[in-house]
Structures are given as structure tokens and as C-alpha cells.
Amino acid sequence: MIDFARDYIGTDYVWGGTSPKGFDCSGFIQFVYHKFDISIPRTTANYPKLYSKRVDFEHAQVGDLIIFTGTDPNIRKPGHAGIITKISKDSLHFIHSSSSKKHFGVTETNYFKSGYPKRYLSIVQMTAKP
Question: Which residues are in coiled coils (predicted)?
């Protein structure tokens, strides 16, 4: 799954985008998961609610979703997400489609060397529908 997702690094960010012509964050995640027959909600706001299990950092796995606030960290509701790609003792990397001017489009980010910790909300593992 991670290799497939990395094939799209550099694809433009497009608000509402769900295809290789351009992705928003949830459109990219849904596109990648769909390739592996995993059905997930279309919007980031629904990830923590539907068919998911929250886990803490110590139990995160590659392929889990990391959920963040939108650009305003004071509004503590889901607004951005990525797929965890690498976990080690001192790092956690995730791939996502970003609207930031610093790293626009599909990119891979080192969580601990970014501005994302202040926006962190949760990590979820997507599970099968009940």
C-alpha cells in the first residue's frame, strides 16, 4: 500500500480532488485504500467515527491514519489526515496531500520535524464494516 501511495508523490493538491489529476487529503487516502479494497469515508471528519479504532502512538502501525485539525490548531476537529508510512524510535512519517505552499500536493512528512504535532488529534486503524 505504501509503495502504491508513494507513486503519487508530486501529484497536485486539488480541493475536492479524488484522482491522479489532483487530490485533497481525504480524496488521496480514499483512492489509496480503495486500490486495496478497503472502503473508507470520503471526508476526514468521518474517519474517527466510522469503522475505525483509535490507537495511541505506541501502537500505531504503517498504514494507519493520522488525523489532524485543519490549519487552525485551536479548532479541535478533524480537518486533515495522512497515511503512516514509517515508524521508528524517533520518527513517524506519513504521506498526505497538502495544500501548504511549503509542501504542496502529495508529499511525505516527518511528523516530529514538522508543524503537525500542534495539530495532532488521533491515530486510527480502519476496520471492516460491522
Answer: none
